[in-house]
Every structure is written in structure tokens, then in C-alpha cells.
Structure to design on (383 residues):
């Protein structure tokens, strides 16, 4: 196929993709990496324009557009992958001097001492390395959880390897340059089209994860909400029942929280709830699950823990909350909690287990608050 026609199709494709990504980014600017990917396709479009202009306007302008556009596209693709994967972006201060030197060499081997082979190696090695770095940046630890990331990594990595091998392909097909050029252009068009759809899949993945987090977490404290906690509790109870263990469950209520709201205001009350969550998370193990049931009431379940271990955790939490007042702009707010501890019975519904822990918590309140009460125990652990 005619190479200029393929170049025109590639430029058209990248221009359309850049416009689509720009529209998506305009309405959802919190998607990591999307701005860089938009710039990548915009620079790719400029690179195609530079290659198309070269026969009509040979010289520095077409070289800068062509070589600079393709290199910047690969660089921005790498930046987008790093941003999406939560990695720090590459430092621009170290990139721009290298970019300037690379373009000066491209100009030298185009205008001063024309050498097609050197320009071809330069146009292959630089972008090829950036695409390989893109694949490395976005490769997920678990492809089953993030299939779009793994597919993107394979596409970037495969294209990077092809670019690095491209000079050998031209050397082997030196007698059929037009055919080789068509193959190279078709590969680029196919890969960049697939990469564009991969980026859209990543955008969809990010939006879905954000919606799931919004549906499962409490907006004030960031812990699981009532519905999500009950779902997780039910699954954990089933797992523990299979190995004949009873899952410990804690129900925690902040003492006199209404008095905090009435005295200090609801804004301070919100600070107190967030402070409580921070203190609680510091007392828990990595596998323990904390949820907000509503108001000032929280629940915790402790996988792989015995009743004695659960009581120690509850007592440590009670002591830590009492020892760490919440520091607010309006002053220090002293806190205490009442905690009920219960073991989930086999084949029991999560709501029933929560009900027994709730009754134990109210026993602790009835005996003076700032206590840990075990369901079924005659006395409670007090201060």
C-alpha cells in the first residue's frame, strides 16, 4: 500500500484518538494518566504531519515535527502509564536536554550529513525504549484483577520490541524498501489503534473502581459502610465455619457522642469520628476489617483470631482511644468507647451476630461505659 496514504491514515487515527481522550479528560480530570495519553496521541499526530510534509518541505521543520513528535508520543505514553500505575513521573529536567540533543543529531544527519540509516536507528531506539518502559510501568502484579493493565503492557512491550528490531527489518529487506515501509506503517496503525482501545479500557476500569469504592465506603471516614461490612462479614463467617472456627466480632460505640455534637458542633463531631478511625486502624492487624454501621457505631471482625485475642484487641483499642483525645481547632475533645465482643456461631446470619455484639455493647454502657463486655460473660472488663 502507498506509504503516504498509510501515513495519512495513521495521522488521522491519532488525531481522532487525541480528540476523544481530550473530551473524556475534560469531563473527568481525576483519571490518572489520561492527560499524558492525550498529549501522546497529539504528538503522534504532529509526527505524522512532519513525515507527510518532508517531501514538500525538507529541512529542519519537518525533521523536528517528525522525529520530535514520535519521540514525545512514546515519552508521554510512558508518563501516562506511570501515572495510572501510581508511580512517580519521570523528571522533566533530565528529559529535555536529552530531547534537545536527540533532535540536534536528527537535524545533523538530515541536513548537514544526510544518513537515512542513522535516522532510522534514532527513530527506532528512542521510542522503542520508552514503550518498553511504559510496559514495565503499568504491568500489574495480578493480571486477573487488572486485565486491562496487562493487555496494555503487552501492547506497549510488543510495540517497543518491534521498534527496536525495525532497523534490522529494513536492512534485511533493503531491496524491497517500499514493502517493508508498508509493513512498518501497518504495524504502527494496528498497534496504536489497539493501544487507544486499551486506554479506554483503563479509563473504564478506573471509573468502575471509583464507583465501587463510593458504593462500599463511608464518605466521612473512608471505612466500609454498613452494607459492605455485612457482605464481608458474611463471607468471613463462611470461611471460618469451614475450618470449625468462630469469627470474633466487636461492636464499638463512642460514649456520649451526642454531647460532643451538642457542645462542639457537628464539624467537630466529624473530626472526632475520623480521629477514632485513625486510632482504631493503628490498633488492628492488616487483615482485620472495620466498618461504620451508622452514626457513632462501628463494627470490627478479626479473622483467624481467638476470643482471648479479640478481647486483647478490644481492650487495647479502648485504652488507646481514652489515652488520645481528639485535637481540634476548638480544643481537645476527650473520648471513650464501649465495646461488645461476640463470637459468630456456625450457620448464623451476620445480622444475628451483630445483634449479640450490640447487646454486649449496651451491657458495657449500662455498667458505666468505657468498658469491654464479652457476650455471655457475667462481668465486664472495666477501667
Amino acid at each position: 500500500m502507498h506509504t503516504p496514504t498509510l501515513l495519512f491514515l495513521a495521522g488521522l487515527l491519532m488525531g481522532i484518538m487525541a480528540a476523544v481522550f481530550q473530551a473524556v479528560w475534560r469531563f473527568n480530570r481525576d483519571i490518572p494518566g489520561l492527560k499524558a495519553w492525550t498529549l501522546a496521541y497529539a504528538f503522534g499526530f504532529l509526527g505524522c504531519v512532519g513525515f507527510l510534509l518532508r517531501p514538500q518541505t525538507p529541512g529542519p521543520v519537518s525533521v523536528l515535527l517528525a522525529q520530535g513528535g514520535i519521540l514525545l508520543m512514546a515519552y508521554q505514553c510512558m508518563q501516562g502509564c506511570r501515572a495510572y500505575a501510581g508511580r512517580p513521573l519521570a523528571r522533566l529536567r533530565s528529559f529535555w536536554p536529552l530531547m534537545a540533543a536527540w533532535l540536534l543529531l536528527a537535524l545533523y544527519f538530515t541536513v548537514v550529513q544526510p544518513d537515512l540509516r542513522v535516522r532510522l536507528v534514532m527513530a527506532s531506539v528512542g521510542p522503542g525504549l520508552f514503550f518498553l518502559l511504559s510496559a514495565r510501568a503499568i504491568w500489574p502484579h495480578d493480571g486477573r484483577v487488572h486485565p486491562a493493565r496487562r493487555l496494555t503492557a503487552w501492547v506497549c512491550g510488543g510495540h517497543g520490541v518491534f521498534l527496536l528490531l525495525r532497523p534490522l527489518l529494513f536492512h534485511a529487506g533493503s531491496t524491497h524498501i517500499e514493502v517493508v515501509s508498508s509493513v512498518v506503517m501497518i504495524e504502527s496503525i494496528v498497534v496504536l489503534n489497539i493501544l487507544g482501545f486499551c486506554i479506554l479500557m483503563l479509563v473504564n476500569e478506573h471509573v468502575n473502581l471509583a464507583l465501587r469504592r463510593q458504593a462500599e465506603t463511608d464518605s466521612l471516614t473512608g471505612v466500609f459502610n454498613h452494607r459492605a461490612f455485612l457482605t464481608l462479614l458474611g463471607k468471613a463467617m463462611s470461611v471460618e465455619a469451614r475450618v470449625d472456627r468462630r469469627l470474633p466480632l466487636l461492636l464499638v460505640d463512642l460514649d456520649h457522642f451526642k454531647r460532643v455534637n451538642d457542645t462542639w458542633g457537628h464539624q467537630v463531631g466529624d473530626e472526632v469520628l475520623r480521629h477514632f478511625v485513625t486510632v482504631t486502624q493503628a490498633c488492628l492487624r492488616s487483615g482485620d476489617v472495620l466498618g461504620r454501621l451508622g452514626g457513632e457505631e462501628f463494627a470490627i471482625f478479626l479473622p483467624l483470631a481467638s476470643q482471648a485475642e479479640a478481647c486483647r484487641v478490644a481492650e487495647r483499642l479502648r485504652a488507646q482511644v481514652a489515652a488520645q483525645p481528639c485535637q481540634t481547632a476548638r480544643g481537645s475533645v476527650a473520648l471513650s468507647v464501649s465495646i461488645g465482643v461476640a463470637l459468630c456461631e456456625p450457620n448464623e446470619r451476620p445480622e444475628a451476630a451483630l445483634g449479640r455484639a450490640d447487646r454486649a455493647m449496651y451491657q458495657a454502657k449500662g455498667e458505666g461505659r468505657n468498658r469491654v463486655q464479652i457476650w455471655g460473660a457475667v462481668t465486664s472488663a472495666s477501667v
Summary: The radius of gyration is 30 Å. Residues 3-216 form one domain. The chain has two domains: 3-216, 226-374.
